[in-house]
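Input/output pair, single chain:
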Amino acid sequence: MAKALIVSDSHGLREELITIKKRHEDEINLLIHCGDSELETDARELSGYVTVRGNMDFIGKDFPNEAIEMLGDKCVYITHGHLYDVKMSHMALAYRAEETGASFACFGHSHVAEAYEREGMIFINPGSIRLPRGTFEKTYAILEVNEGNTSVVFYSLDGKRIDHLSKEFK
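Output:
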């Protein structure tokens, strides 16, 4: 079993990133921040997170535009999404993630929490822990891969599971 904690669009929040990490630290193999942290590249709050650059990351200019990580034996593609115009379509994101051999595409930018599967790839937007859209809950997600079964569980900022957003994939 392997798990990734995924956050995005924290827009300057600091202690919340630490709180979320501590809440799940005993169960997580990979920490992901999909951009728009608006923090410095070396901010202690981002320590341990694989962090990419968002369109509002003017301070953390050294963040990469994308990252590729392994979660168990599965490839995870990470980007913010603004370079792929994800507010209009996920097609360009899908093409790029496919080019990398990813099983999962993690992105942010729209602040809309969602998880879905298309043509064998699972797309995950954890929403925003600061400025959510489409829901009132400030959200993050945990991706779990376990012997061919995959789940994406969404949580509110205060750590409550959000069942109506969470999904299981076979």
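The chain is about 10% helix and 40% strand. Residues 2-169 form a domain with the Purple Acid Phosphatase; chain A, domain 2 fold (CATH 3.60.21.10).
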